[in-house]
């Protein structure tokens, strides 16, 4: 029987879930929240992550850290470049999602998607170069070699700014390119492109757990990440409430997390190196000669 | 029943008749009941109580070929003071080691009340001649072991030579003297839940103080459906004979959540009397770290991490 012209095809709606450990689970709490487009019309339901999802994400990030940081910097660069390749193939989808979310023109959306891809390529290139810039051989007054080399901090929690795609990539790429793994709370207002970006990462050689994306309330989830003793750094770029940011910094001090404070920043401008160096630690080795 | 035990064990045929006369296990039903009990939610003060109880029930285990006296000393210290920063944290029930490490463990533990359990009888395979197994047991007891974990001859059991297995357990128990005897059934090799029930009864009738699921060297190790059957067995055995036998799941229990599921099952299936380190133990090593991390989470309100517990 041929499809009858009188029956209308039902759209297949996408379920937006979380991205944890390379999988797309629903929130453990079973909650979701409504995401509207720029005109206030219903767009989709997004998962509202709970503290237990954050805990699971940290566990996944910790498990992935050994393998990811142990890869050669060159290989990490290749993997991040591969994310850019896969993203390039899905430009139309992201363009449509950005237009729906922000109500911007097609040309503008295209510009943002292109800039996001370029940003990934930029950080992919940095993977095997950052050590030359911030590390090196130190001059010492003795018959020794003395080297400093940057090493990743570990698991970094990130609060992404309220810019759908560009914002997320600008904060995640510099953190993972140096070998950290991360748990990122996507923009509360624009969570959908973040989960679609998760799909891109899941299909682009990035090991599961290196990037974990949570959607939901920053005020609810961030304090659990800030106080988590197995998190080594926290990037507060997307925290707009100054009081919350201060509280998060205080919690983060408990185990001396590296903290990147929130501050006004032009995400489209050429990015500063400190997004990478903030979550690096310097190891210095004395190497005696002649023995 | 006491007379019927001696009657049932009078000959191989009688023993087979008795064990095969035990009611069969409905496997689907057992799995469903175990899964149902696993969904109970234990929170706040009940959780804190359960975690402390679980710590007191741990047989902290190291059974590796590369064990050293130093590692055993470290483990024994950890058993006495699982959280050195918190004096309210209880000690574990015992440390479980190979027989040659018993003396080291005993010396470190001193009069702390933490017991030393030794695996004997050619653990984990049990494939050795009877005199070797008995010598292994006596050796561990002489070194100061408070508890002996023996393995049954699974080959004989699966071939239906029940009386041989029975007599072996009786002989090892005699060699134990005052030490408590835990009988390892190695349920991962017993194939069916019916076999698990028969082996449980066999071990209890032979005088084991505890029945234990696994060596931890074979997968699957302890599972919830197997525990359900074994807990039913200890419950039914007490009803029939008046004797209480302990239960120890071992292997594969790594998270606090799993441990709490076991405690729920013990309470619901066997009864409250078994919620005591004298009658229920966890054979585990990594479980203790997770229990300590959860304990810290409840105490401080912040998630803890593996950097704050020992590596072992």
Quick check: average pLDDT of chain A?
94
What structural class is derived from the secondary structure elements of chain B?
Answer: alpha/beta
| Structural classification of chain A | alpha/beta
The chain pair forming the largest interface, with residue counts per chain, is: A-B, 11 and 8 residues
Q: What is the ordering of alpha helices and beta strands of chain A?
A: EEHHHHHEEEHEHEHEHEHE
Give the radius of gyration of chain B. 19 Å
Mean pLDDT over all positions of chain B: 95
Number of strands of chain A: 10
| Oligomer class | heterodimer
Shape of chain B: globular
Q: Approximately how much helix is present in the residues of chain B?
A: 40-55%
Family (chain B): Belongs to the DeoC/FbaB aldolase family. DeoC type 2 subfamily.
EC number (chain B): 4.1.2.4
GO cellular component, one term (chain B): cytoplasm
GO biological process, one term (chain B): carbohydrate catabolic process
Can you describe this structure?
- The complex is a heterodimer of chains A (291) and B (312).
- Chain A is α/β, with parallel strands linked by helices and 291 residues long.
- Chain A has helices at residues 51-70, 73-88, 91-102, 106-126, 130-134, 166-177, 192-202, 218-227, 242-253, 274-277; strands spanning 32-36, 42-47, 136-137, 144-152, 155-159, 181-185, 211-214, 233-235, 258-260, 280-288.
- Chain A has a single domain (46-288), classed as Aldehyde Dehydrogenase, Chain A, domain 1 (3-Layer(aba) Sandwich), CATH 3.40.605.10.
- A five-stranded parallel beta sheet of chain A has the order 7-6-5-8-9, with helices on both faces.
- In chain A, a hairpin with a 5-residue loop joins strand 1 and strand 2.
- The mean pLDDT of chain A is 94.
- By secondary structure, chain B is α/β, with parallel strands linked by helices.
- Chain B has one domain: TIM Barrel, CATH 3.20.20.
- Chain B is built from 13 helices and eight strands.
- Chain B has helices spanning 2-8, 12-20, 27-37, 44-57, 69-80, 102-109, 130-142, 154-158, 162-176, 193-205, 224-241, 256-270, 286-300, and strands at residues 58-61, 94-97, 115-119, 147-151, 180-184, 210-212, 246-248, 282-284.
- Chain B has an eight-stranded parallel beta sheet.
- Classes of the chains: A alpha/beta (291), B alpha/beta (312).
- The A-B interface holds A 55, 58, 62, 224, 227-231, 251, 254 and B 301-308.
């Amino acid at each position: 029987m041929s499809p009858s012209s009188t029956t209308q095809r039902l759209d297949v709606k996408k379920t937006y879930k979380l991205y944890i450990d390379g999988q797309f689970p629903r929130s453990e709490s079973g909650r979701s929240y409504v995401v509207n487009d720029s005109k206030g019309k219903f767009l989709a339901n997004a998962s509202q992550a709970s503290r237990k999802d954050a805990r699971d994400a940290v566990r996944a990030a910790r498990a992935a850290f050994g393998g990811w940081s142990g890869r050669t910097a060159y290989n990490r660069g290749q993997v991040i470049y591969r994310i850019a390749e896969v993203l390039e193939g899905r430009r139309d989808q992201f363009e449509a999602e950005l237009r729906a979310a922000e109500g911007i023109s097609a040309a503008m959306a295209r510009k943002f998607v292109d800039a996001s891809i370029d940003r990934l390529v930029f950080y992919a290139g940095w993977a095997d170069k950052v050590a030359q810039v911030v590390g090196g051989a130190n001059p010492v007054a003795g018959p020794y070699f003395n080297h400093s080399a940057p090493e990743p901090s570990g698991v970094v929690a990130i609060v992404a700014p309220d810019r759908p795609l560009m914002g997320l990539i600008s904060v995640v790429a510099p953190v993972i390119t140096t070998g950290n793994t991360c748990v990122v709370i996507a923009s509360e207002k624009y969570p959908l492109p973040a989960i679609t970006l998760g799909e891109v990462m899941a299909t682009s050689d990035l090991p599961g757990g290196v990037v974990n994306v949570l959607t939901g309330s920053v005020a609810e989830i961030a304090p659990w990440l800030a106080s988590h003793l197995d998190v080594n750094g926290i990037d507060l770029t997307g925290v707009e409430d100054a009081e919350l940011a201060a509280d998060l910094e205080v919690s983060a001090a408990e185990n001396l997390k590296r903290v990147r404070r929130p501050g006004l920043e032009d995400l489209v401008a050429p990015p500063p190196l400190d997004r990478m160096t903030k979550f690096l630690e310097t190891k210095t080795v004395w190497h005696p000669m002649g023995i | 029943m006491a007379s019927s035990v001696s009657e049932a064990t009078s000959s191989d045929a009688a023993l087979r008749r008795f064990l095969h006369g035990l009611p069969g296990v409905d496997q689907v039903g057992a799995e469903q009941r175990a899964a149902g009990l696993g969904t109970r939610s234990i929170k706040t003060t009940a959780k804190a109580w359960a975690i402390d109880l679980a710590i007191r029930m741990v047989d902290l285990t190291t059974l590796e070929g590369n064990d050293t006296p130093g590692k055993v000393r470290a483990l024994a210290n950890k058993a006495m003071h699982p959280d050195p920063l918190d004096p309210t944290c209880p000690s574990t029930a015992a440390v479980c080691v190979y027989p040659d490490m018993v003396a080291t463990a005993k010396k470190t533990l001193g009069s702390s009340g933490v017991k030393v359990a030794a695996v004997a009888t050619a653990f984990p395979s049990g494939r050795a001649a009877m005199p070797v197994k008995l010598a292994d047991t006596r050796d561990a007891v002489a070194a100061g072991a408070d508890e002996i974990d023996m393995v049954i001859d699974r080959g004989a059991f699966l071939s239906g030579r029940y009386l041989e297995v029975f007599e072996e357990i009786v002989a090892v128990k005699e060699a134990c003297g005052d030490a408590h005897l835990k009988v390892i059934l190695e349920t991962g090799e017993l194939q069916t839940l019916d076999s698990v029930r028969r082996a449980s009864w066999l071990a209890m009738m032979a005088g084991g103080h505890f029945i234990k699921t696994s060596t931890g060297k074979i997968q699957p190790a302890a599972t919830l459906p197997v525990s359900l059957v074994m807990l039913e067995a200890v419950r039914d055995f007490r009803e029939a004979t008046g004797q209480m036998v302990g239960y120890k799941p071992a292997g594969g229990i790594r998270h606090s959540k799993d441990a709490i599921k076991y405690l729920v099952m013990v309470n619901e299936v066997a009864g409250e009397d078994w919620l005591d380190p004298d009658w229920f133990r966890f054979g585990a090593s990594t479980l203790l770290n997770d229990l300590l991390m959860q304990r810290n989470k409840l105490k401080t309100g912040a998630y803890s991490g593996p950097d704050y517990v020992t590596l072992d």
